[in-house]
Design a protein that fits this description.
169 residues; alpha+beta; 6-stranded antiparallel beta sheet
Length: 169
Amino acid sequence: MSSITLGATAIRECEKCEGLWVEVAAFERICADREQQAAVLGAASPVPAPKIPSGALPKINYRPCAQCGQLMNRINFARCSGVVVDVCRGHGTWFDRDELRAIVEFIRAGGLELSRQKQKREIEYEREQLRAQQMISGLRSEDFGGVYTADELAGGLSAASELLGFLIE
């Protein structure tokens, strides 16, 4: 791999596959700084996606970290970008050709903010589920005239909680 500079950020590029290795701090700067993002977009030229034969899935390769050699985790950036990258939490991220450009476009289109809002809704929904379960565990059938069983109360609260979750999304 050879060292290159995008804007003010030093990264490494594989000459064979045109993949990029970006260290943790450098990637954080790219995500936060519009000038760095502009440098990425200016340096990257989109290429057509490789054609995959119908019915065939692309082969998934787990890559070793460029620094420590351990296999990296594959994650969907921001949990919803559709760009799956290889990450070593302590050292950096491997981007296949054009993945860094796709992430920068996702960020500039407001994707990170949308992802944060979605995560907040999910956390709130989980809190509501927990509150409902706590209420269920504290309820007794006598509180409702002995007409309902604990399972029936749980089912009713669970259904109400699912409806609430559906309405929130």
